[in-house]
Each structure stands twice: as C-alpha cells, then as structure tokens.
Recover the amino acids of this structure.
C-alpha cells in the first residue's frame, strides 16, 4: 500500500535560521526595477551558478511588463545595475539582461539549451496590437539579436544561437505556457516545442502545440489553426502547428517530449466537461504532432494506443465541479504519466496527485473517498487527494530519486509539500 507523508509550512526568509541549519544554504535578494519583480523560472548552470527568469511589473503606463534574465555565481551573487539602468555585466558568471518593448511582455518559461545558451518563451503585444507568442534565444551571456518592428530577428552569423520569433494570428490573443528543446532518437536537436493557448480560432480558447526548427521558424497556420511544412521528412517534424479543442475553452499547463519523440500535453477542457466545468485532458501525439481522432461529444478516442491517445478525467464524478491539472511529467521508471492539480471533492478543493498507465488511463476513485489505487496491466495507477479545511492545490510535480513523487502547492494559504513513497 502506498504511503505518504505531508509537510505544510509557511515560507519565510531568514538568513540566520538557514545559516544555522545548512552550511551550504543562502538567501539572496536583488534590487527590483519597476513597481515589482518576481521569479518565473530558474535553472542551474554548468558553472554551478544559476540563471533566473523574472517578470518585471511597472504598474501603469505604456510599458506594463518586461522580462529579465539574472545570471548569478554559485552563491547567488549577481552584478548590480547602475542607477537608472536595468542591465549589467561583470563576468560570464554575473550578468543581467532585459527583454521587452513598449507594452506588455510576459515570460512563462526558461530553457537551458544544448549550446550553453538559453531560450525564453512568453507572450507580448509590444510589436503587435494583440498578444503573440514570443520565443527568444540567447547565447551563454544572455545576448540575442535586436528585434525589428515586428518583434523578430535572426543573427546572420549564429542563427541557431541568437534569434527572436513571434508566433500568432493578427486579430486575437495567443499565449505560450511552456516550451522545451526537442531531440531526435539519435540525440540530434530537432528544434523547440511550445504549448500554448490561442483565441484566434473557434468560439473560445484552444490548446496550441507549436513546433519550430532550430532557428525558431515554423509554418503559417491555415483557417483551422494548423499547418505542416511538407518540404521534407525533417521539416515535417520540425515545423508544424496543431490545435486541440471543442466548442468551449481549453487551457494548457504542461507539455513534454516522450521517449518515442512524440509529445504529451496536460491541459484542461471545458468543451468536453459537463455543465462547462473544467475536466483534465491528456493528449499524446506522435512526432508530427498528430493524435487519434477524438469524439466531439466525448473528448476521447475510440481507439487508443501508446503513440496516440486522448483521455478525459473527471475524478470527482461530479458534473458541476471543476478539476484542474497544473503540472505533469513522464515517469522515468516506466514511461507512464503523473500529474498534479486540484480536485473538487465534497464542495472543497484538495490537492490532486494521479498516476496513469501508458495510455493515460488511471483507476476510478471511490465516490466516498475520492481516491483509488490499482494495477492496470503492468503499471501501477492511483488517484490521491490531500488537503486541509480550505482551498488546496498542487502546482508542481517531480519524480523523486527513490521512485516516489513530490508535489508542491497550497494548503490553507500556506506552502504545501507532499511526498509519496515508490
């Protein structure tokens, strides 16, 4: 029987407490610009330092948000911008770069790329009247090319190392939630995959899966929001756009490349949920972004395979309440899937933690407990919930070194961490 321990705590920062508890622990703060600045993502770099992606907020005026990359050394030290400046450079280990235009530029994801540089994904309306997806590729020092009036550029000398690309339609908002650098089975770089949301097609928001080549270029979507570059087998995998949705709205939160070089998307759907509530939608595609044909009334495919499936999950068995996935992963040990989010059970949101089989299927929760654990074929599957008296949810999930899972989120307005055994 699977066991769990739960740690709930209020986050606070005290250098003295941490110094006494851990010899290698430290806390750092960095001078903000604008009215506020907060971390969006962080990666550790090969020099044992860190690079952080932040969102800069200005509060009001024509420039509402910008993006900053902050590179630190191994103890979190960064350079200090001069008075009135937002950027600085001290060394390869300490630099700060700002990205943005005249309006709103919001970062959502950071990628550490194979060439030692970085890629930022987000969305912007600084170069267009509506929000468009913005993909920025920098070198190891955070440097990129200078965007033209359309928000794009490519470095003529190092086109894979420095580029800026906008993706979207001219009349409606499009945004990105997550991105990653993709590979072929032999390890060669394929390009970048972006999971986002588009309001440019149909009556509501739809999930968009976009793949670009190594220089950030993709095909131009047709009236259905999709396209494929059929020039060659390589471009067929490198340049495509796929749209997933129904008559209402879908909101993507997480996507990853799978071991067969296809993609798994963790999204939420209102189109296929009863009474317009949200249900959890798992979509598995092949390497070309294609999946099975799902029913417009069910949101699922009649024939599911490990390469292509679409699964709809409503764990609470309550058509009036919503369930949400916020983060999903591929389980290293068996290439199945696990995700975290929230479940509405007995008129209260709890943290949801679930594991599926290879086809994205899991067990059916007991109506009285909202939980289950079952062996499906050769794979363990479970649905678990955790919570207190008020609102609880899970925002991030990892597989731990011992083969279990950890989910971090919120418990009654405090930070909440759940760890399972293998």
């Amino acid at each position: 029987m699977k066991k769990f321990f739960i740690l709930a705590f209020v986050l606070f920062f005290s250098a003295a407490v941490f110094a006494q508890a851990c010899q290698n622990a430290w806390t750092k703060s960095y001078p903000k610009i604008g009215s506020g600045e907060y971390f969006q993502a962080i990666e550790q770099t090969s020099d044992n330092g860190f690079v952080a992606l932040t969102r800069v907020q200005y509060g009001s005026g024509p420039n509402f948000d910008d993006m900053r990359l902050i590179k630190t050394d191994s103890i979190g030290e960064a350079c200090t911008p001069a008075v009135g400046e937002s950027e600085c450079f001290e060394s390869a280990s300490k630099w700060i770069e700002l990205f943005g235009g005249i309006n709103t530029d919001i970062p959502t994801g950071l990628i550490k790329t194979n060439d030692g540089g970085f890629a930022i994904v987000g969305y912007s309306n600084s170069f267009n009247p509506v929000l468009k997806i913005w993909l920025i590729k920098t070198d190891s020092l955070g440097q990129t090319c200078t965007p033209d009036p359309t928000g794009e550029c490519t470095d003529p000398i190092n086109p894979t190392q420095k580029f800026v690309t906008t993706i979207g339609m001219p009349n409606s908002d499009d945004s990105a939630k997550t991105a990653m650098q993709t590979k072929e089975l032999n390890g060669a770089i394929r390009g970048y995959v972006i999971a986002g949301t588009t309001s440019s097609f149909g009556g509501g928001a739809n999930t968009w899966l976009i793949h670009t080549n190594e220089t950030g270029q993709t095909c131009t979507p047709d009236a259905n929001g999709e396209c494929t570059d059929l020039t060659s087998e390589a471009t067929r995998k490198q340049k495509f756009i796929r749209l997933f949705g129904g008559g209402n709205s879908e909101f993507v939160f997480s996507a990853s490349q799978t071991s067969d070089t296809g993609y798994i998307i963790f999204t939420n759907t209102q189109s296929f949920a009863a009474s317009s509530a949200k249900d959890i939608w798992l979509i598995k595609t092949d390497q070309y972004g294609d999946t099975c044909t799902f029913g417009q009334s069910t949101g699922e495919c009649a024939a599911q395979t490990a390469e292509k499936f679409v699964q709809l999950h409503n764990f609470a068995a309550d058509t009036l309440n919503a369930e949400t996935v916020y983060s999903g992963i591929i389980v290293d040990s068996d290439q199945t899937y696990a995700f975290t989010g929230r479940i509405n059970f007995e008129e209260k949101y709890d943290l949801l933690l679930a594991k599926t089989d290879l086809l994205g299927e899991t067990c059916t929760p007991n109506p009285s407990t909202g939980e289950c654990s079952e062996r499906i074929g050769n794979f363990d599957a479970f649905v678990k919930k955790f919570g207190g008296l008020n609102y609880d949810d899970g925002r991030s999930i990892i597989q731990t070194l011992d083969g279990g899972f950890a989910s971090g989120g919120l418990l009654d307005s405090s930070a909440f961490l759940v760890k399972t055994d293998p």
Q: What stands out?
A: The first strand starts at residue 4 and ends at 9. The helical segments are 15-21, 233-238.
